[in-house]
Design goal:
Radius of gyration: 27 Å
Strand content: 5-15%
Shape: elongated
Helix content: 40-55%
Distance between the termini: 44 Å
Order of helices and strands: HHHHHHEEHHHHHHHEHHEEEHEE
Length: about 425
Amino acid sequence: MNIHDLREAQVHFESQMDTFLKNKKDLYNLRDSFTKFYDKRRIKNMTLNQYAIGNNLPKTGYNFCYTLERSLDGLGRIIGATSSKFGIYYGKTKGDDTIKYRFTKKFGSSVNGAFINIKQAIIDLIELGEQSDLEGIEANPLSPMFKGKILSTYFPDRYLNLFSDFHLEYFLVQLNLDNEDLIWSDAVYKREALLGFKLKDEIMKDWPLDIFTDFLYNVYPGKPIPEGEERPKDDILKDYRTPNFPSLISPKWISLEIKPGKNLSHSKKRMISIENPDYELEARKLKKIGDRGEKIVLDMERKRLTDLGFPKLASKVEKAKFDYLGYDIHSFESNGKPRHIEVKSTTSKVGDANFFLSSNELKEAMKLENYYIYMVYDITSKTPKIWIIENPFNPENENVIKEPVSYRVKIHTS
């Protein structure tokens, strides 16, 4: 995640927030009316016609499933998954054109028996939601998407209105909140991680939860590409979008040998572009890739120390607090001494390492003990490769080429 891109997006979004809130006023009123109508007593006594989608809508009140899925679609989408997510519905299947009540067998062996159990599961879920009992919510037999929509409808200030597991994983990855345990966990914990991110941010902490979800989908990082699809090749905004980093990655350590190379200025393959390069855009792209590389290395360093039998040291691995320190990650050697890590990342396959180093980073590298460069290759793949390069600047490695690419200019005036 690029904090500067996030802040720019927040500035843009806050200028439109009043419009978002105004457009949702009717939805908020419907949500309040619906939840007041379907209190726990009325849920316990509601009929199949009042509950199941596929029936004619009741003349008074609300159809429970239709309202949640269709009428309140603007406060979180669960349209798309089959009607079996409700546990019981009225309709047909691909193999049977008979229109009748159909139910999920885990709730019972008959329509009426299943319906009684579904109503009780909804009442239990509301009570669990009141208590913020996440383990109980996870164990509740209702389908994950349906549970999520009920919770965000009855407790809009507590539970996030984002339900697709694919979308949850996408946002967690793009915001660098993912880890293997979280990706494999129930959707309720993924929503909690996104909620925690929102509450820790000084700008977003007071936003309504549904507005925060709108921000994720419409502004930053933007809605995910549907599974199996790709963005068009002529996408004008492709260089501005966050790269589509995958979830459940399996990074691997690799070992390479540093060999003699040629100075860039002497290379016959050097190409000079006739176009004026957009340095700011290039820096933005590199920052997004770099931030993801730091997240990967941070996780791998913690795993390295844990695997070596030093979980306490692993728990202390963290990002460097200040840029002037000259490195990205503060880790540890097995003897407890600090390890200073500068992370460089690329979308390229394993091969030559080619990266920029600031003058401050070079100055600090030349004096720091236990300094390493972690080169992360193939960062948008499922299996990024990490090459640990022991300090090539102290002592100086004659095979490592350094070339100045910019100057700081100061002009004094009278």
